[in-house]
Amino acid sequence: MSAERETLSIIIPAYNEAGNIRRMAQALRETMTREKISAAVYFVDDGSRDGTWEAIAAAAENWDMVRGVRFSRNFGKEAAIFAGLEAAVGDCCAVMDCDMQHPVQALVRMYRLWEQGFEVVEGVKEDRGRENFLYKSMSAIFYKLMSAAVKMDMSRASDFKLLDRKAVDALVALPERSTFFRALSGWVGYRTASVGFRVQERAEGESKWTTMGLIKYAVNSIVSFTTKPLYLVMGMGMLFLILAVIQGIECLVTYATHRAVEGFTTVILIELIIGSIVMLSLGIIGGYVAKIYEEVKGRHRYVVSSTIGLPSRRERDHDAL
Ligand code: UDP
Ligand code: MG
After folding, report:
1. pLDDT one-digit tens code per residue, 109-149
2. Nearest CA residue ID for atom 25, ligand 1
């Protein structure tokens, strides 16, 4: 383990990024040396099936400020970010992608803002890079919902951030398992600044997101960040109760005046509408029940299979004594 302790810890989740590790390490080393920033890079290999881990080991050979955490399988980017935050020891921590989409130059600007006393520096997308139509429209809906939930504009938010030690400690101490890092940095509060950046083209390989993966991510983020949908169900229930009372009175009146029957279409329509709303509501409630179940199990967010340049847990506990 290197004796040097960094000021800035750069956390990079990597899933099947073998071709990008060297490039990232090199770019960061050059820039950090030029800017005289004492930095260490934490690559978190999220269960890659290509040579990512070997590439991280090679990068660590070349530069003693490279550290690595390897997961036993793919646990997802959120888990990888948190593993990095937990391992990092710097006075501030930055999180960036492994594919050069987050420019290193913007990281330097974030760091300078941190030096000026800002505790949370958000990377804000100035444009969204190249995305297809479906992706664009789906993400627009998702960000509308999330922005309403978080009460801030999420449409240009990214996972590219720099956090002061205080904010990192606050995030790492959260007991919850399923997190939404992008919004949590706003949730912790603190003095916040933002740095605009243009999303670059991906250096090598392709985006790791599948459509199903994105939908799961969106649902998970909403469910773990807001209970609004539950109140929406309650609201729908009330609205339908009011309608039911009106319809009920009308029904009784027609019955009393012997003008019943007819209205078959109305019955079918009401049946269909109520049926779907009940199912939808059950689904929403089910989503939250599932979340409670998962949280209550209290499983680890991830399982580490090996590390590079990091003290083992036992050593760390010993240091703390
Ligand atoms: N990533 C990860 N685990 C995953 C999927 C992605 O650690 O299960 C990492 C990936 O290696 C990259 C970052 O998260 O560093 C962003 O992924 P990607 O570029 O595929 O997403 P996009 O930029 O298209 O949103
Ligand atoms: Mg990318």
Report:
1. 999 999 999 999 988 888 766 667 777 787 787 788 778 77
2. 207
Kind plus residue range of the DSSP H or E element containing 44? strand 39-45
Structure tokens at 63: 């530069």
Domain boundaries, the chain: 8-209+300-320, 228-297
CA distance 95 to 163: 9
Residue 131 makes CB contacts below 8 A (sequence gap 6+) with 139
From 12, 15, 41, give the residue whose CB has the most ligand 1 atoms within 8 Å, as the site to mutate. Answer: 15
Q: From CA 69, how far away is CA 9, in angstroms rounded?
A: 14
Q: What is the 3-state secondary structure (H, E, C) of 150-212?
A: HCCCCCCEEEEEEEEHHHHHHHHCCCCCCCCHHHHHHHCCCCEEEEEEECCCCCCCCCCCCHH
Distance 216 CA to ligand 1 centre (A): 15
Rounded CA gap, 316 and 321, in Å? 9
- CB 48 within 8 Å of CB 15: yes
- Mutational test site, ligand 1, from 71, 77, 159, 302, max ligand atoms within 8 Å of CB: 77
Per-residue pLDDT tens over the stretch 17-34: 888 999 899 999 999 999
| pTM to 2 decimal places | 0.76
Distance CA 60, CA 28 (A): 13
Span 8-209+300-320 CATH architecture: Alpha-Beta Complex (3.90)
CA of 24 to the centre of ligand 1 (A): 14
Nearest-atom number in ligand 1 for the CA of 101 is 23
Ligand 1 shell residues, CB under 6 Å: 13-15, 17, 46, 74, 76-77, 80, 97-99, 101, 207-209
Task: Looking at the CA of residue 15, tell me the nearest atom of ligand 1.
Answer: 11
Q: Which of 79, 83, 93, 64 is nearest to 1 (CA)?
A: 64
Tokens read off for 242 = 């009011």
Q: How far is the CA of 211 from the centre of ligand 2 (A)?
A: 15
